[in-house]
Structures are given as structure tokens and as C-alpha cells.
Design a protein that fits this description.
It is a single chain. With 358 residues, this protein is α/β, with parallel strands linked by helices. The protein has three domains: 176 residues, 3-Layer(aba) Sandwich (Rossmann fold), CATH 3.40.50.620; 49 residues, SH3 type barrels, CATH 2.30.30; 81 residues, Translation factors (Elongation Factor Tu (Ef-tu), domain 3, Beta Barrel). The protein is built from seven helices and 17 strands. Helix 1 packs across helix 6 and helix 3 runs antiparallel to helix 4. The longest helix has 20 residues. The radius of gyration is 22 Å and the shape is globular. 36% of the residues are buried.
Length: 358
């Protein structure tokens, strides 16, 4: 955790009502920072939000920190839920947390901080930021958290230098178990609170129930890679590349989704685990974002193509004008899904950047 340079340093902490942001607040308080906190009111689940806000208020009262509430439900509905639904309607599998960090959470945190004349913000993310002097210029590098199971650097690759220069991640050097113990030691009432696992705006039911309310799903044929009709799908938006469960084809399985023919409303599957249509050695990217300066390419890097996937070696290449990027992997990648992010890492855990899989 970055140490404060003087007693005047003020930090605005984004607090969600969970254990991680609560401990981040407590650690900064212990380190002597002058703190204020903000609760971003994003979701429309009144019961869930009321509980989270109540817990945030309790934590701030115990620690003697002023809590602000930022209303942002309409913005969240438009920007994040709208993006999520539109991507699924196109046949992609989006990651809303990455999009939200870039366009909502850190943007709003920094806006509120500016209004309060506070220079720094902090969150409970498991990631690290290091300041490096490069030829007299100060650069900010993003690194994975030390807890491999909780590392959240994957979701932060779209943050830029200006943002990183104003952000603290107090939990980056801690294991999750230690964080829970610290919450108990600080007498914070959230120390036993469960981690949030699902997409925050899906309140009741799963993805299918949510999308049914948002998209006009059309049934269509399920075919194999040779064009043979095997059954009927419930709507292309409900399936992702590589999916096995929920395809509902009797006999001859298990089947895996290998493609979608959007214009013809066809779902393509295979029951051959070695079917090459299920694997890719080259993955095209769009909306590539670099944490710092774009390095000289081609470059050998480590890549994570989904949050829980293992890191894999690849060479990233680009056309001269940098308008087109692609990854050439050392090993075949199983079912890289359009809409998910491929995040680039160095061997030392530094996050170099990332892009969205086309």
C-alpha cells in the first residue's frame, strides 16, 4: 500500500458495503490518511442496495468517516445494463465489470473526489500500482494482486495513466483470508459477509430469466458442423462459445457450442472434443487499450482470455497503423469467446493492457 507523504493527504474511498472496501477504508485510516467515503448507488434492487448502504453506514460510523451517496442508477442502467444486453443481442459474451470500471466506477469516484477537492481515490480491488521513474517521467504500472485466487487486475486493464496516478489499492498486498481477519480485528460488522459472485444487476433468477425480459429471443435450429439439424435452441443470446450445459440435445453428447450463424439464427455445435472448430490459435482483437505506452510489436506476452482462465503465452501483433491487433498463441485456445477480454501480462505480473475478442 502506498504510504502517505504528509498528514494533509486526503483520500476518497469507494465503499460498497462489503468486506473488501471496508477493510481498505480501515487500513487507510490506520495509516493516517484523512478520509471520506462514497457509496455509488448503481443497481435498482432496492432490498439489496438498502442492505449494502446500511452496512456501509455502519462501517463509516465505526471508523469515524463521513459517507457520501452518489446517485447513478439511471447512468448505470443506460451505460452498463444497456451495453450488456446489446452485446448479448449481437451474439457476444460481454464482461460488464470491465466496462463498468472504465466507464462508471472510477469515473464517478474521480468526479466526486474533484467536487470534494480530494486528489486521491481508493477501492477494495485486489491489485497493485507501482510508480516508476522513466527518464525523469513518472509512470504508473498496474500489477496483479498477490492473492492469485482473488486477483482482480483482469478487470482493470482499461484504466489509464491519469486515473492510476490518483488511485490506491490498499488490498493488493493481502490475501483474502487476512482481509477477513482484519475486518474482525477492526470490529467491522461485515467481516462474515459473503463475497458477491454474480453480476450485480441480476437480482432474481439467472442470465436466461434476465435476458428474456430484455431481448426478443427467437427459437431456431441447432446444427452440427456439417449442417445436420439436431434440435432447437431457445434464442442465440442464451449461448456462449464453448458452452456444454443447457444445450438440450438428446443422445450422442455431450455437445459444445462452436459457433452462431446470426443472420440465419442457427446455433452450431459439435460432440467431438477434438473438433478444431472448438479451438483457435489466432484470436483477433478490437478496442485494444494499453495501461502505459504501446510497446514495440510484435511482442511475446502472457494472456488471460477469461477471468478464471490460465495465463497462456502468445505473440501480439498489429498492422502498422495499429488499427488491427491479433494474438498468435503457442498452444491452441479452447473456445475464446467474442465479447470477452484478452488481458496482456508480463512475466512479473504487470498488466500491459488488453483488448476485446472479436
Amino acid at each position: 500500500m502506498t504510504e502517505k507523504k504528509n498528514g494533509e493527504r486526503r483520500v476518497l474511498v469507494g465503499i460498497s458495503g462489503g468486506v473488501d472496501s471496508a477493510v481498505a477504508l480501515a487500513l487507510l485510516k490506520t495509516a493516517g490518511y484523512a478520509l471520506e467515503a462514497v457509496f455509488l448507488h448503481l443497481t435498482v434492487d432496492n432490498k439489496k442496495t438498502a442492505k449494502a448502504l446500511s452496512d456501509a453506514k455502519k462501517v463509516c460510523k465505526i471508523l469515524g468517516v463521513t459517507l457520501h451517496v452518489k446517485e447513478a442508477r439511471a447512468l448505470f442502467e443506460q451505460k452498463i445494463i444497456g451495453y450488456f444486453v446489446n452485446e448479448y443481442a449481437k451474439g457476444n459474451t460481454p464482461n460488464p465489470c470491465i466496462f463498468c470500471n472504465e466507464n462508471i466506477k472510477f469515473k464517478l469516484l474521480l468526479e466526486v473526489a474533484k467536487e470534494l477537492k480530494i486528489n486521491l481515490v481508493a477501492t477494495g480491488h485486489y491489485a497493485r500500482i507501482k510508480k516508476i521513474k522513466n527518464g525523469g517521467e513518472l509512470k504508473y504500472k498496474l500489477f496483479s494482486g498477490i492473492d492469485n485466487k482473488k486477483d482482480q487486475s483482469y478487470f482493470l486493464y482499461r484504466l489509464k495513466q491519469e486515473q492510476l496516478s490518483k488511485v490506491l489499492f490498499p488490498l493488493g498486498d493481502y490475501e483474502k483470508e487476512t482481509v477477513r481477519k482484519l475486518a474482525e480485528d477492526f470490529n467491522l460488522p461485515v467481516f462474515e459477509k459473503n463475497d458477491s459472485q454474480d453480476v450485480c444487476f441480476m437480482h432474481n433468477g439467472g442470465l436466461e430469466d434476465f435476458l428474456k425480459k430484455k431481448i426478443n429471443l427467437k427459437k431456431g435450429a441447432i446444427i452440427d458442423t456439417e449442417g445436420k439439424i439436431l434440435g432447437e435452441h431457445r434464442g442465440l443470446a442464451l449461448y456462449t462459445i464453448g458452452q456444454r450445459k443447457g444445450i438440450e440435445i438428446g443422445g450422442g453428447g455431450p455437445y459444445f457450442v462452436v459457433g452462431k450463424k446470426i443472420n440465419k439464427n442457427l446455433l452450431v455445435v459439435t460432440n467431438n472434443l477434438q473438433d478444431l472448430t472448438l479451438f483457435k490459435s489466432v484470436v483477433n482483437l478490437k478496442q485494444v487499450s494499453w495501461v502505459g505506452d504501446c510497446p514495440r510489436l510484435p511482442l511475446k506476452i502472457l494472456v488471460r482470455t477469461r477471468y478464471r482462465n490460465f495465463l497462456e503465452y502468445a505473440i501480439i501483433k498489429a498492422e502498422k497503423d495499429r488499427k488491427k491487433y491479433w494474438l498468435e498463441f503457442e498452444n491452441l485456445q479452447r473456445a475464446p469467446s467474442p465479447g470477452q477480454s484478452a488481458v496482456f501480462y508480463a512475466k512479473n505480473g504487470e498488466v500491459l493492457g488488453g483488448g476485446i475478442i472479436k
